[in-house]
C-alpha cells in the first residue's frame, strides 16, 4: 500500500504544472498591497486595488482576452491620497456596475467608499464615501451579509480587532454603521494582519489575525435580524516567527488556513461544529514562502498558494480533510504582496508587485494531477502514508472566489 501511494504521488507530481501564460506590468514604479477580484459574472474583467506609492491608493480594471488571455488595462481610479505602508484594503463586487471598498485614508482613519463602474468597464467613479472610524482603521476585510449589509473587520488605534456591520442601500449611495463588536484585544498590524470569509450560506464568518508569534483563528456570528455580532469560538496557534494567515471555506463544517511565517508556508484544515473549532491536519509546504500570500481553489480538491517565493498547489481529501502537496513549485518572482482569484478550473489571475516593486497582473494556467483512485500519499512529519480519497463535496468560497 505504501509503495502504491508513493507511486501515485510520483505520477501526480509528474503531471502537475503551474505556468504563467500572460503578464502585464501595469505600474512601472510601484504596485504593492494588491487585492484582485472578478467583476460581475464574466471571467474576463478584474478589478485590482493597490498602492502605487507611499501616499496614494488606486483601483484599476483589466480585461482578459478570451482566446489569448492577453491582459489590458481599461480603467483607473485614484482614491486621492489614501495609503500608508503597512495596511491593506479590501472590496466586494456588489454587481457588475457597483463596488464597495473598505480602506483607510492618509491619516489612517477607516473609510467605506462605494464606486460605480461603467458597463464597458472603462470608467470608475465615486458614489459615496463614509468615514466609519474617525481615529484609526487599517487592515480591512469585508464580506457580504445580505443585499444591503456587509461585515468588516479591521485593526483600530489600540491594536484591537474590531468588527462592524455596515449598511449600504441598493444604490450604494447611503452608508452607515449598524453594529460594532470588538473581537480581539491585540492584532499585530502589518502585512495584511486580518482575513475574513463567510462560512457557506450560514450566519457564521471564519476569521484570522496575527498576534505576535501566534496565528489566531475564530468564528463570528451575525444575527440576520438584529445584525448583532458575537464571537462563537477562537483558538491561538504559535508559529516560529511573525506570520499572516489567509482563510478558506471548504463547506459549512470544514475550513482551511494558509499561514506564512518567515520562509515557511503551512496549510491547515479544521472542522467547525458550532461552537467548536478543531484542527484536523497541518502540512508545511516545501517551498520557501514569505510575507503576504493568498490561496484559491481550482476544483473540489485542488488548491493553489502564492507568496513571495513560490506558487505551490495542494490537495484536500474531502472525506478525511487531510492535505497533500500536489505539485512541484515554480518561482513566483514576487517582491512582497500577492493576491489570487480563480478564472476557471484551469486558470487563475494573480496581482502582485515584482522584484522592483512594480505592479503586475498575470494569468496562471494550472494542470491538476490525475485524481487518485485508490489512495493518496499524505505527508505526516515527513513520513509518507496512504489515505483514502472518496466523494467530492461542493465548495462555497476559497480565497477571493465567490
Any idea what the CATH architecture is? Answer: 7 Propeller
CATH top level? Mainly Beta
Radius of gyration: 20 Å
Helicity level, as a percent range? under 10%
The overall average pLDDT, rounded, is 81
| CA(first)-CA(last) distance | 38 Å
Q: What's the total number of strands?
A: 32
The side-by-side strand order for the widest beta sheet comes to 21-20-19-18-32
Structural class: mainly beta
- Rough shape? globular
Major beta-sheet overview: 5 strands, antiparallel
Low-confidence stretches are 1-15, 373-402
CATH T-level topology = Methylamine Dehydrogenase, Chain H
Q: Give the name of the CATH superfamily.
A: YVTN repeat-like/Quinoprotein amine dehydrogenase
Strand content of the residues, in percent?
over 45%
Query: So how many helices?
Result: 1
* Number of separate structural domains: 1
